[in-house]
Structures are given as structure tokens and as C-alpha cells.
Design brief:
heterotrimer; A alpha/beta; B alpha+beta; C alpha/beta; A: Globin-like; Transcription Regulator spoIIAA; three-stranded antiparallel sheet; rod-shaped; B: alpha+beta; Heat Shock Protein 90; five-stranded antiparallel sheet; 5 strands; about 35% helix
Chain lengths: ~325, ~130, ~90
């Protein structure tokens, strides 16, 4: 079958019956849009596509097919934006076949031409569906990235100590993001210590352990020491039974323990604040020194009896 | 497709610069750019040192679902690699070095293809996609 | 090569006990450069000096980790200041 020849004959036919076919096609599409687009708008859209289709069929130039595809993609997008379902858009394209068929039905010698033409229109209609699908995929992908970003905070726990609480799964995509955020934060805060909390990580298997080890290695290259916290009892058992070794990386049960460790490594100690209480006045006043000899809280206090008590001081009655 | 000769250390530097440019222009993140350029550096050096010099080609490619990527080809007419599997094992080395050239480069890219036969030269093709 | 020669000369001449290599401006560290850094570490040790590499960029650190390159024989620190702290024995 001489495809080239048949397409050209079809193109000629479509050219000759331009007004009739475009008119009928417009009509069919307008019926489907149910008022969401004006008839003039439809007529214009349809007319543009019609000219492009004729160009493609007559193989006039190399750009025709590219332009037609671009026009359809744009139509698909704008229809999707206006709330049309992909089926509605596709059926709009398919109705050109209906319009043409009504005219050629009586002309038997155009049957092979019509078949080739029909196949082209089928492809175009399906293309609008694909375009719609691709647009949805992009939205899902964007949202997915946004969620990933949001669920990976890096917080400053203390001077020089940052924490990365991980929640959910730790796959390679997440790990990349964690590493990037952790390292960038190390650079901007100059922190020496990072605590990676895995309380919220649902499963810890060999792969997750690898991701954690990679993250720690990367942080160490920037001079930061790491502690892994949030090791739950079941997780501990899994880790041991899988033979996972954390080597020289400190691991702790809770974030609190990890913070204490990080503080001690930074040469800091948390001590209870000492208060003094004057026995006679029974008021708790913070003393600059817990020792009686240097008590300066109540200048006029007669007893001057002070002794250190632990934080917080009891109320007046105590 | 850009074709670059690899006959000297300066050529390796040039390959790095061109790859960096292509990666940046095609939407790869900074980390991905760094990984691709590092892989290119490894492979270019391999071509120079073990392949006796060769050629690098940089191509921009598109995936079926519309993502853009950068494809690199490294070819040489050198002695070739007798045991490809061994070469791709971590820690393998054919001379002085940390022995990470090929296996390391593989970890840095999304797609990696190595074809080599003793006496027939070596060809390495890698692809890194934008996210 | 040049760097290593100059470094060896300098260490011999000054008897310095520490070397800080600032790679803030280095965009790519491949295995060749990694080897060079490790060698610098070895050379320094022969002169009884410790080497600290500072200023590694996050993208480089992530790539090195993926590459599996371990810079053995050298310490790393975030910047020159912290590097000095290490050399002065604070860590």
C-alpha cells in the first residue's frame, strides 16, 4: 500500500472539505465540553489542529509532525488545567474521525485512505492521554521531593552539637539528602558533633546500616564526630543477629544519652545549680555562693544560715 | 557529541572541565556534578595511564520519561582488560594506586558499561541522570 | 610531585611538627589526588609531623565516601582553626 500516496490524497480531501469538516468537528467537540469552553475558542483550536494534520498528511515539511505534537501537548495541558478528564480531551481528538467518516461514508474509493488517517488520529488521541499522565507524574515527583525535604530536618542541639532525627525509611535517596543537609549544616554552624537519631526509622537492616556508616564517614571528613542514638531493643537484636558492626561509632539508646556523651566530649559537664535557703526567713533566694561565709542574699537576715539545696527550691511552706 | 583527545594530564583536566560544563547545563545537582566529574577524572586517567591514550565523548541524552542525562564514552586501543569481573571488584589494582578507578567510578554513576578484550582496547560508557 | 618535594624540603628545613592542607578550593578529589594526599601524610610522618586536611567541600566528602576512598594516615577538620586545635593536641 502506498502510504505516501494515500496520505496525500487524504490531505487533499481534507483541504477541499475544510469548512465542512472543521465545522462538524467543532460541533462534536463543543457538544462534549459542555460549556467549559466557548464555541469560538473550540473552533479556533480545532482549526489550528486541522491545518497541522493536513500538513503532516501531505508530508509538506519536516517540522509539521513536531509542531502537531507540541500543539497537542499544549492542548492536553490546558484542558487538564481547566478540569477536563484525559478521556474527554482524547475523545475530542477522536471525534475528527467521526466528522470525516460522516463525509467519506458514501465514497468507497477513500476507504484505504481513511484507514491510514484513522491510525494517525488514534495515535494523536493517545498522545494527549500520555501527556496528561506525564504531567501527573511530574506533580507526584515534585510533591515527593518536597516531602523528603520536609521530613529531613537538621537541628542545633547545643553549641557545636547538631542532631538529625530520622523518621521513616532510610533508602539511598533519603541518605543522599541527609548527607547533603548534614554536611551543609556542619559547614554553616561549625559543629564538631552530630547525633543521628534513628528512633523513628522503621527497619534497620544491612542496607540501612550501610547508609548510616556512609553518612558518618562523610561527616568525619568534615572533622565532625558522630553518635547514633535511638537504638531500640528489637533493633539492637536485629543488628547483632545480622552481624552489623558499627566499629568505632558510638551508639546510644536515647537522644538524651547521646547529648550527654557529646557534651562530655566537648569538655562540658551538666551540674545541678546550687541554691541557698535562709532558715529564718524561709525564703529561697539564689546565692552567688552556697557557702555560709560568703552568703550575700539577704543582707539584713539575722540567721545568715545557708546551706546548699538542689534545684528547684521548695516553696515557702517547705 | 563533543570528542576530546586524552593524551596528557592536561587533556584529563580539559575533560573534567567539559564534563563539569555539560553536567551543570543539564540540570545535575552540585553533588551529582561532582560525582560525574570525579568518575570522568578516574576514567580519563585510566584511559591515559592504562590505555596508552584515547578519546572521550560527551553526549546529552533523554530518558523515555523525559529526564535529561549526560553520557560519557571513554575509548582506547590499549592492551585491554583480561578479567573484567576482577577489574570491577573493589580494591583491584593493576599498578600503583588505591585500586578504585573502575569500581569506584561505577558507584558514582547511574549506568555503567565496560567492554574490553585483551589486545582489542577498552570502552567504558557511563550515564548520570538529572533528578 | 612538586607539592610533595616542596613539602619535604620545608619539613626538613623547619622541623615543623604539623602540616595543614587546605582544600577549600578543590572541587574534585579522585583516587589520584587521594593517593597524593595519603603520600603527603606518609612523607610528613617520616619527619615526625602530623597532617590535617581542612576545608573539604560537602560535595567532595559525599563523593569520596561513595568512592570508598579512605584517606588513611591523615586527619581531617572543618577549617584551619580546628585543624590547628588538633595539631596542638586539643583532640
Amino acid at each position: 500500500m502506498d502510504v505516501g500516496g494515500t496520505s496525500e490524497r487524504m490531505a487533499e480531501y481534507l483541504r477541499d472539505h475544510h469548512d465542512k469538516v472543521v465545522g462538524r468537528w467543532s460541533e462534536l467537540v463543543t457538544a462534549r465540553v459542555r460549556g467549559r469552553t466557548s464555541p469560538d475558542e473550540v473552533r479556533r483550536e480545532v482549526g489550528d489542529l486541522y491545518s497541522l494534520i493536513i500538513r503532516v498528511l501531505s508530508d509538506a515539511d519536516d517540522h509539521a509532525l513536531g509542531e502537531l505534537r507540541a500543539a497537542l501537548d499544549e492542548l492536553s495541558r490546558s484542558r487538564a488545567r481547566d478540569g477536563f478528564t484525559p478521556s474527554e480531551t482524547a475523545l475530542g481528538v477522536f471525534s475528527l474521525k467521526e466528522a470525516v467518516y460522516e463525509l467519506v461514508a458514501d465514497t468507497a474509493d477513500l476507504v484505504p485512505e481513511f484507514l491510514v488517517f484513522s491510525r494517525l488520529i488514534d495515535d494523536l488521541g493517545l498522545r494527549t492521554f500520555e501527556a496528561y499522565s506525564a504531567a501527573r507524574e511530574q506533580i507526584i515527583s515534585d510533591q515527593s521531593n518536597a516531602m523528603l525535604e520536609l521530613s529531613t530536618p537538621v537541628v542545633r542541639l547545643w553549641e557545636g552539637i547538631i542532631a538529625v532525627p530520622l523518621v521513616g525509611t532510610l533508602d539511598s535517596a533519603r541518605t543522599q539528602l541527609v548527607m547533603e543537609k548534614l554536611l551543609d549544616t556542619l559547614v554553616t554552624t561549625g559543629a564538631d558533633h552530630a547525633v543521628i537519631d534513628i528512633t523513628g526509622v522503621s527497619t534497620v537492616d544491612t542496607e540501612v546500616a550501610q547508609h548510616l556508616l556512609k553518612t558518618v564517614s562523610a561527616a568525619r571528613l568534615l572533622g565532625a564526630e558522630c553518635t547514633i542514638s535511638g537504638i531500640r531493643p528489637q533493633v539492637a537484636q536485629t543488628i547483632v543477629s545480622l552481624g552489623i558492626e558499627f566499629g568505632d561509632i558510638a551508639t546510644k539508646a536515647t537522644l538524651a544519652d547521646a547529648l550527654a556523651l557529646a557534651l562530655s566530649q566537648a569538655g562540658m559537664k551538666v551540674v545541678p545549680q546550687l541554691w541557698s535557703k535562709c532558715r529564718s526567713s524561709r525564703s529561697g533566694r539564689r546565692c552567688s555562693s552556697p557557702f555560709r561565709s560568703t552568703c550575700k542574699t539577704i543582707p539584713s537576715c539575722a540567721s545568715r544560715r545557708t546551706w546548699p539545696t538542689s534545684w528547684p527550691p521548695p516553696g515557702p511552706a517547705g | 557529541m563533543d570528542e576530546l583527545p586524552i593524551q596528557s594530564g592536561d587533556d584529563v583536566v580539559r575533560v573534567r572541565q567539559q564534563v563539569r560544563g555539560a553536567a551543570a547545563e543539564n540540570g545535575l545537582s552540585l553533588v551529582d556534578q561532582t560525582k560525574l566529574v570525579t568518575a570522568a577524572s578516574e576514567l580519563a586517567r585510566n584511559t591515559l595511564v592504562h590505555g596508552g591514550g584515547g578519546v572521550a565523548r560527551i553526549e546529552v541524552v533523554k530518558s523515555p520519561n523525559g529526564r535529561t542525562g549526560v553520557k560519557l564514552h571513554f575509548t582506547d586501543e590499549g592492551p585491554g582488560i583480561a578479567d573484567v569481573d576482577l577489574a570491577l571488584t573493589d580494591g583491584w589494582t593493576s599498578g600503583t594506586g588505591l585500586g578504585l578507578g573502575l569500581s569506584g567510578a561505577r558507584r558514582l554513576v547511574d549506568e555503567f558499561e565496560l567492554n574490553s578484550k585483551p589486545g582489542k582496547g577498552t570502552s567504558v560508557v557511563v550515564v548520570k541522570w538529572s533528578r | 610531585m612538586r607539592l610533595q618535594e616542596d613539602l619535604a624540603d620545608e619539613l626538613a628545613a623547619t622541623g615543623a611538627s604539623g602540616v595543614i592542607i587546605d582544600i577549600t578550593a578543590v572541587e574534585i578529589v579522585d583516587s589520584f589526588i587521594g593517593r597524593m594526599l595519603t603520600m603527603i601524610g606518609s612523607i610528613s610522618r617520616l619527619f615526625d609531623a602530623e597532617t590535617v586536611i581542612v576545608g573539604m567541600r560537602p560535595a567532595v566528602a559525599i563523593t569520596l565516601t561513595e568512592l570508598g576512598l579512605s584517606l588513611s594516615g591523615v586527619r581531617t577538620a572543618l577549617n584551619a582553626e580546628k585543624g590547628l586545635e588538633i595539631l596542638n593536641g586539643k583532640s
